[in-house]
Amino acid sequence: MNKGFFRVVSPREFLALLGRFPPLPTETVDLDTAHGRFLARDVVAAEDLPPLSRAAMDGYAVRAADLFGAGEANPAYLDCVMDVAIGSLPEAPLPPGFCARIVTGGMLPDGADAVVMVEHTLDMGAGTVEFRKFAAPGDHVMHRGEDARAGQAALPAGRRLRAQEIGLLAALGVTRIDVRQAPRVAVLSTGDELVPAEAAPPPGCIRDVNTHALSCLLRDFGAVPLPLGLVPDDQASIHDALARAVARSDAVLVSGGSSVGARDFTLASLAALPDSEILAHGVAVSPGKPTILARVGRKPVIGLPGQVASAQVVMTLFGKPLVEHLAGNPQALTRTPFTYPATLARNLASKPGREDHVRVRLEPRPGDIPLAHPVLGRSGLLKTLLDADGLITIEADTEGLEAGTRVEVRPL
Questions:
Q1: Across residues 143-149, what is the average pLDDT?
Q2: What pTM, to 2 d.p., does this model score?
Q3: What is the separation, in whole angstroms, between the first and last Cα of the chain?
C-alpha cells in the first residue's frame, strides 16, 4: 500500500493514471442490445454491401457514353428496353444506345453505369425517352461493395455502436456481436448532513443530489450506475461502504470527504483497503482540485468533491473518459474533446498554476459565432449548472482571458 497523501497532479497526468486500469472483458450480445457499446474486435464483412450496384434515384439506368453532350438545348433520345422492379434482378444486360426504367434501390443491369433522374427526362411515348441532361459514370449509383467489402473490416474494434453502426450490422446480417462489458459503477455519497431526496431535511442538513445527478451522468456515458446510498461521516462506515462497493462494481465514485479536514475520512478509508494505492490526491483544476484517484485491486475509485457543481465538472473532465476507457474506447483518454467556437463576452481572471473550467451560457448571434457569458458562482450552487451550456478552459499558464477572445466550449 502506498498512501501518497497530497499528491496533486496535472489534468494530463490524471488522465494518464486512468490508463493504468484495463478495459473490461468481452461479452457477446444480441444486436438489439448492443446500442452504445464498444466493439471488442473487428467486424469482417461476409459479403459485399450492396451486393450489386443499385440506383440511388428514380429514373433511367443508362450507359453514360450514350448521353455525351446531352442538355436542354441538345437532348438525346434512347429507347427503353426494360423496367427494373425493386427486389428483382434485371432480365438482361443493357445494350448500347438503350435505357432501362428503374426505381430507387433497383439493381442496375450489366452495362449500365449511371442513373439519370426522372426530372431530367421526358417519356415521348412508343418507348422513346428524351434526356435533357448528360450523365457521368457513377451518377446516382450505389456501387457494389461501397458500404462494405467481403473479407474486409466493416467496423474496427473500439468503435462505439450508434444507430448508424447498428444499421450496417443489420444490413450485413450480423445479429450477435462481441462488445466490451458496460462498466458497473458504484455511487456513494458521504456526509452526516445528507438526507435522502424524499426526506424533509432538518436544520443544517441538505438533500442528497450527487447520487441522482452522478447516476444520470453515468447512464449518459454508457455505464450502469449502482447507487449504494448515503454513508455517515465516520471512517468505519466509509471503509465498509467502500469495501462493499468495490466488491460489487467495476469502478467506484464516492462524493464528499475528499478535502482536507478533520471529518474527511475517504482518503484514510481507501488507504486502509487491501491491495490499495492512492494514485493522486488533488488535480490542478478548478473546480475539483481535491479529487482523489485510487486503485483497489484492479479497480479505480474516484473521490469526488461533495459540492454539486464541482462533482459534475469533474465527471465531465475525468469520469466520462474513465467510463469510455473501461468500456473499450481506445481513444477515450487521449482524444481532444468535442467543442464548438464562441466569443468570450467579458474579461475573465484566473490563477496561474491551475486549469480553470468556467461554466458559460451561450448567446446566439445571427451570422456569427455565439457569445459565451461566464456563469460565476459557488460550486455548491445548482444554478451555475442550470444556467450553463458548457465549459471553457483557461490554461494553467495564463492569468485569464480578455473579452472578445475566441474560446472553445465543451458541452455540459
A1: 96
A2: 0.88
A3: 36
